[in-house]
User: What shape does this take?
Amino acid sequence: MTYNLQMLSPFGVEAVGLKITDINGESIDAVKAAIARHGFMVFRNQQLGDEAFIAFLNKLGQLTFTLGEKPIPGFPMLNLVTNVGRDTPPRSVFHTDTSYVAKPPAFTALRIVEVPSSGGETLFCNQYRAYETLPESVKERFKQAKVLHVVSGLTLDENQEKQTWQPLFRKHPISGQVALYLSTPERCQTISGVDTEEGQRIIKLLYKHSTRKSRVYRHHWQPGDIVVWDNRCTMHRADHSQVVGDRVLHRGLIAGENSVGL
Assistant: This one.
């Protein structure tokens, strides 16, 4: 299998010349390692349906599903991401997927189904770089800190997971690198070792640090695109501010593991 990894700016990679249907058991580990190292991978010109998309996801790992999301008819492990039928644009802020469960998804994949006439980009921020650029005093002070992540925007049963403590500094199981592991402050309630008010203030500062424009990649969707990102070292959001036309994507999640701190 011959393909090239093209570096994107300021981070991420595009797999040039690689069809996901050609990825096999030997090459999937290299793909997963590249995503873990670079944060996300873009696959262009993947003209395929959900059956092939599911087959690819199964090679990445075990599929999982965020309870409360809307599944795709006939493909219950995929969920719909769309602006169709809405009176107001969807709300999206930088976040990492389903971080309020003990074992959050490792990877998320989006397959474009309908590209709007304009707008509707997906943005990613580099949480490895966010950690690397923290002052050493902050790294030392919060070396063992944990953050309480809680659910928001979904209606769950009382016996379903709604919150968990996650390490603030998370060591990636594949790359070995350390990421500043956050989600939107709405889902990050406090930090261990400080009172709630101080914890929320610190979370907002760290979140602002993470989402600086110099660390953000903006993906402009094209027909046939698939993007896979690693939730353990990135945050992402959709830009709904200037969308013209229908924006439809199908999303799949790959199960992860318990988070490991420093």
The longest helix spans residues 196-210.
